[in-house]
Write a structure and sequence with these properties.
Elements (H helix, E strand, L loop, with lengths): L2 H8 L3 H15 L4 H19 L1
Helix pairs in contact: 1-2
């Protein structure tokens, strides 16, 4: 999903979406949307494994 598509769905500006994504990338030490998706997938799988 593009930044513009996200902005439209959330009634935000494209720049607001970009700013928030940049902050998330910096805080998680990732450099792309696909790297963030991979990080989130690993995190969820690790949490599920601990809960079992």
């Amino acid at each position: 999903m593009s930044n513009q598509a996200i902005a439209t769905k959330l009634y935000l500006s494209r720049r607001t979406v970009e700013t928030h994504l940049s902050a998330i990338y910096r805080k998680t030490s990732v450099s792309s949307r696909s790297a963030l998706a991979g990080l989130m997938t690993r995190t969820v799988l690790e949490r599920r494994a601990r809960e079992q």
